[in-house]
Write a structure and sequence with these properties.
single chain, alpha+beta
Length: 241
């Protein structure tokens, strides 16, 4: 995707634990170097669970999150050779990971547990957009907010975010955020479905694959139904967060 859509508005939410399987978890530091060397210029947000070998127990594993009625999809922690633990309870080299993050992300933001924040000792700093070279481009021309204001009554003519709610079908009542960047990238975020991505377009070209199920309202979701396959009726496609 990054090769096909070379756009500064497209970035990666990096969770290094997702790159490990039973065949590469032992040379962990080498794999981390490879992953960050390849993707460092695309990383925008840092996120971390943990990862470890499962040991003798290869069964499906679930965490106790203090909610007896929690869906299995919320408590799932792995099956087979690998288990995904809470941050700090597995084998992931967090010190090395945090060093990579500091080099990769100008504004460091961790979406993991509060345990990660004091460990990484990261200080967020809002960069100057002019210095960072990220002044918006409209129709191929770099413009400041003042430049845009001189030519239009409102920035929303070119870019913005709008909260919408579909009124019919399986999406009825589902809150969505529609983003327009003003530079050809447009995407929707499903607020009521864990901020999942819905439609994504770049200069009119659709990105990702949509299933026939559509963006089903979570109130219609039955993960445990139909012999454990009920989740498929709410599976919207392959471009997910």
């Amino acid at each position: 995707m990054f090769a096909q859509v070379d756009h500064p508005g497209l970035g990666l939410l990096m969770d290094p634990s997702n790159y490990f399987e039973s065949n590469n978890i032992d040379p962990m530091d080498g794999i981390l170097h490879q992953v960050f060397d390849t993707l460092s210029d695309k990383i925008k947000i840092a996120h971390a669970k943990d990862v470890a070998r499962a040991g003798d127990d290869k069964s499906e594993k679930h965490a106790d999150i203090g909610d007896d009625d929690a869906l299995a999809s919320h408590t799932f922690r792995g099956v087979g050779e690998i288990v995904l633990n809470a941050a700090g309870t597995g084998s992931l080299n967090h010190n090395l990971t945090c060093n990579f993050w500091r080099k990769s992300i100008r504004t460091f933001r961790s979406l993991s547990s509060i345990w990660m924040k004091p460990m990484c000792r990261a200080v967020a700093r809002r960069p100057n957009l002019q210095e960072a070279g990220t002044v918006p481009q409209l129709f191929g021309t770099s413009m400041t907010r003042q430049d845009i204001a001189a030519r239009a009554g409102a920035l929303s003519q070119f870019a913005g975010v709008r909260l919408v709610t579909p009124r019919d079908g399986v999406e009825r009542g589902l809150q969505m955020l529609e983003f327009r960047t003003g530079s050809g990238l447009r995407f929707s975020v499903l607020v009521d479905r864990a901020m999942d991505l819905a439609e994504v377009e770049h200069q009119g070209r659709a990105i990702g694959w949509h299933a026939a199920a559509g963006f089903r309202h979570p109130g219609l979701h039955d993960a445990e139904g139909e012999g454990g396959f009920g989740w498929a009726r709410s599976f919207s496609g392959f471009l997910v967060t």
